[in-house]
Amino acid sequence: MADLDKIIEQLSGLTVLEAAELVKKLEEKWGVSAAAPVAVAAVGGAAPAAAAEAAEEKTEFDVVIKDAGPKKIEVIKVIRTLVNLSLTEAKTLAETADGKVLAAVGKEAAMDAKKKLEEAGAVVEVK
Q1: Model confidence pLDDT, tens digit, residues 90-124
Q2: What are the tens digits of pLDDT across the range 6-47?
Q3: Is residue 13 in a domain?
Q4: Comparing C-alpha atoms, which of 94, 83, 100 is closest to residue 21?
Q5: Tally of structural domains, the chain
Q6: Range of the domain at 68
Q7: For residue 96, which of 41, 34, 9, 16 has the smallest C-alpha distance?
Q8: Has residue 17 been placed in a domain?
Q9: In CATH, what number is assigned to the domain containing residue 88?
Q10: Sequence-separated (6 or more) residues with CB below 8 Å from residue 6
Q11: Which of 44, 67, 113, 125 is most deeply packed, by most CB within 10 A?
C-alpha cells in the first residue's frame, strides 16, 4: 500500500504547470477525463430547460491566455502577481497557447484577472 501522506506531500510541491502535466498524463494512462461531469435530471420535456439552467449557474471559471501579445514582459509580471510562479514558469505559461493562468475560480476573480492581463496586452478568454 502506498504511503498516502507521502504522495500528498509530493503533490503539494508541484507547480501549476507540473500539476497540469500530471493531469494530462493520468487522463491518457487511465483513459478518463478530469472534467467534472454535469448531472441533469430529465423529467419529461424539462431536460432542455434543466440543461440551460445548469449552464447559466456556472460558478467556476478558467482564465486562459490565447496570446501574450506584444508586451510579453508585462503579461509575465501580471501572471506572477496572480499566481505564485517563478519567472521561468510564468514565461512558459505566457508563451503556451491556451495556457491556464487560473483554474476553477469565481466569476469576479476570473474577470479581474482577465482585465489585468488584457491591460498588459494579452489576449485572454474566460471559460
Answers
A1: 888 888 878 888 888 888 888 998 899 889 888 88
A2: 888 887 787 777 777 887 787 778 777 665 544 444 445 555
A3: no
A4: 100
A5: 1
A6: 59-126
A7: 16
A8: no
A9: 3.30.1390.10
A10: none
A11: 113
